[in-house]
Amino acid sequence: MKAEIIAVGTELLLGQIVNTNAQYLSRELASMGIDVYYQTVVGDNMERLKEALRLSSGRADIVLLSGGLGPTQDDLTKDALASYMNRSLHIDRMAMDRVERFFHDRGSVMTENNRRQALAIEGGTPLPNETGLAVGNAISFEGTHYIVLPGPPKELIPMFEQEAKPWLLQHVLTGELPIYSKMLKFAGIGESALDQRLEDLITAQTDPTIALYAKEGEVTVRISTKAASESEAMVRLNELETRIQERGPEFMYANEDVPIEKVIVDLMADRSWTLSAAESCTGGLVAEALTSIPGSASMFLGGIICYTNQIKEKLVHIPHALLEGDDAPGAVSAEVAEALADHVRMVTDSDFGLSVTGVAGPGYAERKPVGLVYIGLSERGKETEVHELHLQGNRETIRLRATKALLYRLWQRLVASKQA
Amino acid sequence: MKAEIIAVGTELLLGQIVNTNAQYLSRELASMGIDVYYQTVVGDNMERLKEALRLSSGRADIVLLSGGLGPTQDDLTKDALASYMNRSLHIDRMAMDRVERFFHDRGSVMTENNRRQALAIEGGTPLPNETGLAVGNAISFEGTHYIVLPGPPKELIPMFEQEAKPWLLQHVLTGELPIYSKMLKFAGIGESALDQRLEDLITAQTDPTIALYAKEGEVTVRISTKAASESEAMVRLNELETRIQERGPEFMYANEDVPIEKVIVDLMADRSWTLSAAESCTGGLVAEALTSIPGSASMFLGGIICYTNQIKEKLVHIPHALLEGDDAPGAVSAEVAEALADHVRMVTDSDFGLSVTGVAGPGYAERKPVGLVYIGLSERGKETEVHELHLQGNRETIRLRATKALLYRLWQRLVASKQA
């Protein structure tokens, strides 16, 4: 079953709003096992709208239209669809009652153009709008099924959920198998390196299917299958998950769609472990990532952003001799990363201490190159580990990559310590 | 001049990501006076991608493609375009050097598939990628101009701005009057409130045009005009800027597209003022925003993320009696916000001290409601100001809004102190 989404609205083509409806509808259709082949955005223009309908009818079984149901002359979606099908429009009595009641309740006069919001296409099923005034429509024509939805997400989402989805399940999807997915999350490995490790599995994929996506230092592998029941799907998905995990067990940190900091917070809360961080070049990014997770208050005690040498000395007790002087390694060094991680752990009396110090740029510091970063990880009673990173990118990218690298090392350490 | 935007990626059709690139590119094209008639999304599929190219070529003068330039077998955009034009692909030497250097600098082995990221189409202009590895392309064929851009916004935006836009201006838009814009930036006021203050100007707009965009606690007002010369444009834009600024001088912090933290860093550097921050519920967001600005090292001395009461006592010297006990105001209180701002300023010996303490949720703390936040601002030799905020939204939104509110107050204070 192939579907296409057509969003109608010049405000989308001007870039005034982002097309979140297409994302919502795509995700919903995917979860129903319907493949979306195209998303299209077209303006409030009768000819181009009818052209988009003509095209979509030739290539899709289901066409979802969003937007263009309002009261103004610009709102053309139902007119265009009716004209395309050579059908007439009529006032839907229930929808009209709702429009009239709305104006009556507010004590205001309904202008004539508001009647347009109650228009329905001859032979179709009106879809009531619980959160707005414009009625939706569901209608089949020449083998293609059309669903007409309002543009505002707070109207579109409830109408899809309560009206359009049940209509599709009852009239169109009888007998189709639902689709089930699992998201496998990787860190510490790039998209292309993971792609190569999985190359034979990806090439041979039929069912389940495998897809890779990279985002901000994490790679997501989505595996999907159509099945009659969840348990049947899970047998296939779990079997493939195991084969994928074997290709890089040291990189796969979750089998659900969560960031690595969520896994870290859960692992630490589970053991009542506590954490602190001393950050120089990341300026709070590490703390911010961890504290973005609800429940982090139980494990993240606090952090020190020691941007200057004075603060490194005063708040994290880094010896002056390490920071300044001809023979000093300097603030951007393995020695200072180690001391920062150890000292922030001791100052806050936490089980684990993290540190980052480096040159985020633009411009070098201490005659050290942009992208040189040291990360430290201290654990009570264990040896402190320090890693030297050479990162590419601009200031923002270097700070983000340093943060992700540190969180990845922490996750690895927590897994090892948990097993110990 | 008609344009069409084609975003390539199955992750868009599955609804895993929202198509923000289409919004960005539509807005940029509109600002250049180019009409976007269609946005299309198509999956990583050779046949459908070529079909989308065939369609767009028939109806657009300019086609912008985004996504599908990565190293994996799914990344087909350049292959499809080259095949559509019957042209070959070759390795762009500069792009290949960049890919090789990337792996060399990391001390890792480049896998063979990464060569794909350096592919360019015969006869086209390679567009360098300053923030990533995949090279872009600009190429004209049978009267249509194609621009190929990478999918990640942090690569697409700089490449459009620095490479594609100049190419379009030079090769395609010759003879058109150039468009000049100014961005007026507002903080501390919502989009709809600002919209109302500017209502008569917006209604009467012909030339220059006025457009409002809201994003993360800031509102941008973009004013644009077409003119034969920059000086002619600036006369019109500056006149309108003055009229707009008069509607809310206490909210307009810049007349160029910069975040408020950039204005803060510049103002402080100019006076050699220094700053520190003690953050509880924002967990590093304030420090992160400030340190994201190059040059912030000269004014931001450091920060303390005091997530627990123990850390508030130990590192910021908040009296135990303020934090705990039956009569204590508690960590989320005006008293603690004031003490945090004062003490972090004294501990770090900075001119200004900032503080945030509140309930970001989910779930209340100290029997105080989610969204209750206190922000403090301490200045050497002046009275400390504290504001009580009642913020709406989820954890992420509350943290972000608290950060923006504090930065807005700091900017106001700096402007006042500068004039004093």
UniProtKB/TrEMBL annotation, chains A, B:
<dbReference type="InterPro" id="IPR036653">
    <property type="entry name" value="CinA-like_C"/>
</dbReference>
<dbReference type="InterPro" id="IPR001453">
    <property type="entry name" value="MoaB/Mog_dom"/>
</dbReference>
<feature type="domain" description="MoaB/Mog">
    <location>
        <begin position="4"/>
        <end position="171"/>
    </location>
</feature>
<protein>
    <recommendedName>
        <fullName>Putative competence-damage inducible protein</fullName>
    </recommendedName>
</protein>
<dbReference type="InterPro" id="IPR050101">
    <property type="entry name" value="CinA"/>
</dbReference>
<dbReference type="InterPro" id="IPR008136">
    <property type="entry name" value="CinA_C"/>
</dbReference>
<dbReference type="Pfam" id="PF00994">
    <property type="entry name" value="MoCF_biosynth"/>
</dbReference>
<comment type="similarity">
    <text>Belongs to the CinA family.</text>
</comment>
<dbReference type="Pfam" id="PF18146">
    <property type="entry name" value="CinA_KH"/>
</dbReference>
<dbReference type="InterPro" id="IPR041424">
    <property type="entry name" value="CinA_KH"/>
</dbReference>
<dbReference type="InterPro" id="IPR036425">
    <property type="entry name" value="MoaB/Mog-like_dom_sf"/>
</dbReference>
<dbReference type="InterPro" id="IPR008135">
    <property type="entry name" value="Competence-induced_CinA"/>
</dbReference>
<dbReference type="Pfam" id="PF02464">
    <property type="entry name" value="CinA"/>
</dbReference>
